[in-house]
Design goal:
CATH topology of the largest domain in chain A: Rossmann fold
CATH architecture of the largest domain in chain A: 3-Layer(aba) Sandwich
Helix content of chain A: 25-40%
Radius of gyration of chain A: 21 Å
CATH class of the largest domain in chain A: Alpha Beta
Number of domains of chain A: 2
Oligomer: homodimer
Strand order of the largest sheet of chain A: 6-5-9-10-11-12
Largest interface: A-B, 60 and 59 residues
Number of helices of chain A: 9
Amino acid sequence: MEKIRRNERLSAMLKILSDSPNRIFTLSHFCDLFDAAKSTLSEDIDILRDVTQSFGLGELETVTGAAGGVRYRGTVSKADALDYVKGLCANLSGTERVLPGGFLYYSDVLSSPEITSYMGRILATAYFETEPDFVLTMETKGIPVALTTAHALGVPLVIARHNSRAYEGSAVNINYVSGSSGTIQTMSLARRAVREGTRALIVDDFLKGGGTAKGMVDLMHEFSVTVVGMAFVMATAAPEKKRVAGEKSLMTLEIRRSGDEASALVRPASWLEA
Amino acid sequence: MEKIRRNERLSAMLKILSDSPNRIFTLSHFCDLFDAAKSTLSEDIDILRDVTQSFGLGELETVTGAAGGVRYRGTVSKADALDYVKGLCANLSGTERVLPGGFLYYSDVLSSPEITSYMGRILATAYFETEPDFVLTMETKGIPVALTTAHALGVPLVIARHNSRAYEGSAVNINYVSGSSGTIQTMSLARRAVREGTRALIVDDFLKGGGTAKGMVDLMHEFSVTVVGMAFVMATAAPEKKRVAGEKSLMTLEIRRSGDEASALVRPASWLEA
């Protein structure tokens, strides 16, 4: 291959790094790929660090030590995160999305590749430092945002199910009390899905009473896994006291009734405004 | 902002384009962002087109006409797709992943952000020309690959459920016969999830008899939606005749028994080898 020019190398390098977020690439990897010297690539990385920063495209980090190299993280600044979530809140607030029974319709938001990608980046930014080994979610509606968060963190996604299925093999089942309905439910996870002694970040779409979240925490205890954090797209304002604590949600939901009409008031969570 | 140099502009531009796959950006958008002339940006695009092509990082396309501009597509070449799928097949074949009942355990593959991203790019490559308006999947295990395919196509994801839920609002329910068990099941989709007259690409994890796939096709008819194609991660070799036709699967699964031991033979689908 003929010698690659700097501007070609830079764009290819950023693309490769950002396609595998949070994964450390050694400089040697790029030396081989681009047939360039380490000193040259170090300069490249300095340039890319500035570029990503000035356009709000995440950040490049140099990691020192034996397993060192460079990695891309799709971090989102506090200001950008708050702006983005405010936009979502405006879209979700009002009367139009409120369903009979006081539920909020936002399945379209939860399965939008564009929106969940960005939400995943916001949540990953909040949890990079906790170094989870995988993201855990409970089927169904949280799967997209859990996947994008796992992608941004560079870790696998593990999905707990309502019932154990034949095609999952031997499984650990636990019972938990659904916070909203008070009924006893079952949560199941294949034995081989998780390794003992690892670290989980719980990500789900909705937090009301916290029964399901508490179930996921209990399930992780069965696997001797440490839960490093819990993140949700939406938390209800009531009940204020959940069965879990220390979680980070992106938005808070309150349904207000006046006469026959119900209206949703969706606000950014307070940690985003801090 | 001070004038941006070409190498900075190129990397930022490729990152922005590839973060929103298949979306057309006008040249004016980048003119404003980078404070550069159209002629300069046209040259940039030519360079980026070469870069993405020579490193197998997808492709840049110039779209002419009133709504014209430039778009990134994460296309995967036939050769790369086949190589990748062959690697997956090697990982999934053998005795280790076969569960009692002759099921194959591959939930880890189906929820891996890295693997599903690439599978999504392969499937999108096969369906860009059919111009779907959205991707439809049926909960649960196909959601990750359906999301990444939708992302690569730049369209929303719509998820059909087993039962209608209060928080989905009014829904269309259909009954279908599960191909594998022969039982009657229900499939449900919120009325507001899909607009009449649009085009759907069906993406799911597993095709056996084709009952669920046929159900999704019937469901789309209820919404007056055209099904432009069907894609699956895995199809069983038997039965050879499915209730749907014209689908594209990535892999074919055959379980072979010899004495007490069952072994999985997973092969790339024939359209990938063509």
